[in-house]
Amino acid sequence: MEAANQAREGELIPRVTSRCLTEDLGVAPGSVDVTIDELANANAVIAAFRDRRAEMGSAGQEPIRSLLPEIAAFSLHVGRRRGATWHHREAGVIWLLAVGYHREGHVDDAYAYFERLKAAGRLLPDRDDMLAYARSQARTLARSLLNDVPALVAAARDRPGVIHSGRIGGRIRVRLVHENADPPMFTVAIGQRLFPGEMEVPVDWLVRVAAAFLPDTPPEKLSIAFDLAGRELEPDEVAFCDFAP
Amino acid sequence: MAVRTKPVRIFETDHAPLRLLAELERRSPQEVFHAALAEYLDSHRDELAAVFVDTQRAIASGDLGALTAQLAASAEAQADALMATLPTGD
Q1: Which residues have CB under 8 Å from A49's CB, separation 6+?
Q2: Is residue A180 part of a domain?
Q3: Which of A31, A180, B58, B76 is most buried as measured by Cβ atoms within 10 A of its Cβ?
């Protein structure tokens, strides 16, 4: 399942666990690589999950008390159906963990079902979910490196001396500047925090983002910069520079 | 201009050898660490260069598939890092 649109400011990245997709929503195995918008078009619970949680940047309002204190999940109401959603803060992801029908006092009630999944260790995303998520982010980032970086570089060249900002794939903060010195110099500063969330940008991604901004720089000519047009770098930024072509 | 520093955690077992090397060379532990890091970076320059050049090639040819595969190379490590952040008790 791939985020069709990169996360915008304040949004969370929506993901549905593979177990929830197949067991609770009856979606065919393999749909983990389908975009959230395609899934939402086919399923009302996923549409509500995307609209009320991911796009609103909201973890939820009604905690599912039976899952506390280990899991701070929230209830999503869609008609008689209930979803359990959980904000994975470190990853910047809102997960749809499970879906069931609300039948008060019934053994098959959604909340009792959520508790059983938790007790069985099957409620939270598993490693395959994490791997699918990481791979989906690679696709999003690759598209952005191809499509967004040239526009950012062109904008910086059009307004020399002005620091431009952007987010690659909605996740990696960059600032760049083209200085009309003799010779002209181009510098890109790359933040090391992945947005949304609290994880660090993988080191190989840092190097690949730098390569996208400096497509003609031989690696032996790549230099680390310690400022951005004379201004201090942010504490989490690493900057690279080269003479501009 | 004063050199800015940040605290770095090292393994406890590395502290004694680091101090020993620093005293032998009449340098500060920070200087020894900085020199060791510079040597390490230099000895791994080829790996860094390979990542850099592979990316440039994929971008120059507009090869979305190749670029995606390159960026997915660290997916396993990312998945492990994310798993480590899951709450326990599930």
Answers
A1: A14, A16, A40, A76, A83, A85, A94, A96
A2: yes
A3: B58
Question: What are the pLDDT digits (tens) for A88-121?
Answer: 999 999 999 999 999 988 889 999 999 999 999 9
Contact list in B for residue A204 (CB cut-off 8 A) is 51, 70-71, 73-74
B81 Cα to chain A: minimum distance (Å): 9
pLDDT tens, A1-44? 444 445 566 689 999 999 999 999 998 877 667 889 999 998 99
Phi/psi at A61 (nearest 5 deg)? -115, -30
CB contact under 8 A, A211 and B77: no
Q: Is B90 helix (H, G, I), strand (E, B) or coil?
A: coil
Residues A66 and A106 in one domain: yes
Which whole-number Å values give the CA distances from A23 to A26, A34, A123, in the listed order? 6, 17, 12
**Domains contained in chain A, number:** 2
ipTM of model:
0.88
Domain that residue B21 falls in? 15-43
CB neighbour list of residue B73: distance below 8 Å, 6 or more residues apart: A204
Q: Structure pTM?
A: 0.83
Put simply, the answer to whether B79 touches A133 (Cβ < 8 Å) is yes
- Determine the straight-line distance between the first and last CA of chain A, rounded to whole angstroms: 40
Q: Does residue B34 belong to the interface with chain A, where contact is any CB pair within 8 Å?
A: no
Residue A137 near residue A171, CB atoms below 8 Å: yes
